[in-house]
Amino acid sequence: MKLKNIIAFVALVTTFSACDDLFEPSVENAQTADVVFQNASSAQGILGYAYANLPFETKSTTDIATDDAVTNDLENNYRKMAQGSWTASNDPMSQWVARKATIQYLNVFIENVETVKWSASAFKQQMFMDHARGQAYALRALNMYYLLRNHGGWVDDQLLGVPIINYVEGPGTDFNQPRATFQACVEQIYADVEAAIELLPLTYKDLTNVNDLPAKYKSIEGANFVDYNTVFGLRKSGLMNGLICKTIKAQTALLASSPAFREGTEVTSEEAANLAADVLAFVGGVSGMDPNGHLWYMQKAEIDGLGSGSNPKEIIWRGNKNKGTADYDFGLAQELDNFPPTLYGKGRINPSQNLVDAFPMANGYPIDASGSGYSANDPYADRDPRLSQYVMYNGTVYRDTEIITGSYSADDNGLNKIANSTRTGYYLRKLLRDDCDPNSTTQLAQYHYPVYMRFTEIFLAYAEAANEAWGPKGAGSNGYSAYDVIKAIRQRAGIGVGGNDPYLETCAGNADMMRELIRNERRIELCFENKRFWDMRRWKLDLNETVMGMNVTQVNGVLKYNEIEVENRNFKDYMNYGPIPDTEVRKWSNLDQNTGW
């Protein structure tokens, strides 16, 4: 089979920045498969393509299409989508082309991996081959998950996924393939994950004794721990491993067991809870929760000191840290986009009043609950500490500057003062480092890293599934419950007085109340991490809630707080499920479109 087009594309457009200190692809142009896979470096380049095209949104982008935020960039595609421009031929959420192309590269790699001469040593040859094949299976599972999440949906009374293409396509292939059932796609992800887990270590570490070698390698001639460390040692940290694979499986199960999908699958909430628990066993369950996990982006010394591939306690998988100042770098881009105007930012992401209202009081009660102590005349007093950590509101002091967001502001930070001002009365604080300076004459960048997976998300996945499976305090065989997880998360955040959280205790006796509390905690903990859009859809929530803001005025020195309507949403009911690209449906007669599109 000719790989000329594939190799040319990789050579011309692939920028392998996400893993450049972990993996170095070497790809040459216009080679046939038999030549490419005779060379280990060239073969790695094919695998490298999948790493270079990981599916993650690693900067905050999609929350502006939800009830959590708007943007002052009125030409933003996600904003336009939320305003009614989302169609099967205009889909900024589409993963169809990129994921299917990546899966095809991986299929080519899997078919040819055993032909590669990785080493003259039988011991190293087997390990290199296992490592490469394991990564390919894991990456294929990840790409299939994103296809399923973005494009799975109902066609009449059947829940469909995507065509399962786990073979190399060529000139004689029948490309007119029907969509497999959603359940079949879940099973394909599971199968790839299990195949990968058989081949990959749980995490990468250096061995110090030959007796520590995995049993499957001890009997191979020449087995030794030094060569093992070359293939599976710490220097490979950051590549696919068993823990990441387990996380992919847990995420898939949570999706499949969610309200929008559960009627079309065989995946239960109990299964989703147990798979999440399997991931959390790595840190010892609730007792291993990172006390600073909700503030991972603020751990400056930890971030600055991270070695290549090493992970903080909160992180399952991340990209490389970066302090560059280019648009595509992480070192300053988010601050340049989101700092208020007087701090030389564009104020792009504006948190909503809807989200602000979701933060409870410091005593744990929702702001509209009896006993909360909330005052509409002093709305930011005695609130959940995460509010001031994640959102800049009127009067916030940031970088030694008081940020006045009210319409009475004398500077450009005020409501709708200029194009880069807030539209809601709020600016983003989460994900930003206050020691960055986007001033064009200073350009002071600091290290950031993109997060792909973190443990708090899986703790919340466990809580959600466990509550559905066993109720608030049921634990199955896992030793801790949804209640235990939410209690730990809220205590970590600083909620409760003297360790007491009476609202949580009320929810502990009611699965419906606990469900709403879990969803709210997930909304808060994962805000601006591109989770809300997908959560709303899989929970079948109303996508059309009007986005609200806060206009703070000043009359005779007294502040007045007035809620305002900022932006309407224009989603249709069928949009809980994304479309198959219109061009693909028109091209292939066997490819059914999701209902409504």
Describe the structure.
Residues 1-29 have low confidence and may be disordered. The chain has 597 residues and is mainly α. The chain starts with a helix and ends in a 10-residue tail after the last helix. A two-stranded antiparallel ribbon has the order 1-5. It is built from 21 helices and twelve strands. A hairpin with a 2-residue loop joins strand 7 and strand 8 (401-403). It is globular, with a radius of gyration of 25 Å. It has a domain at 4-53 and 94-267: Alpha Horseshoe (Serine Threonine Protein Phosphatase 5, Tetratricopeptide repeat), CATH 1.25.40. Helix content is 38%, strand content 8%.
Short description:
The protein has 597 residues and is mostly helical.
Average pLDDT works out at: 94
Which regions are unreliable across 5 or more consecutive residues at pLDDT < 50? 1-29
Over the alpha carbons, how many angstroms does the gyration radius reach? 25 Å
Shape: globular
CATH top level of the domain at 4-53 and 94-267 is Mainly Alpha
Query: Which range does the strand content fall in?
Result: 5-15%
Q: Could you please say which CATH topology of the domain at 4-53 and 94-267 applies here?
A: Serine Threonine Protein Phosphatase 5, Tetratricopeptide repeat
Oligomeric nature of the chains: single chain
Portion in helices: 25-40%
Based on secondary structure, the structural category is mainly alpha
Overall number of strands:
12
CATH architectural category of the domain at 4-53 and 94-267: Alpha Horseshoe
Largest sheet: 2 strands, antiparallel
Strand order of the largest sheet: 1-5
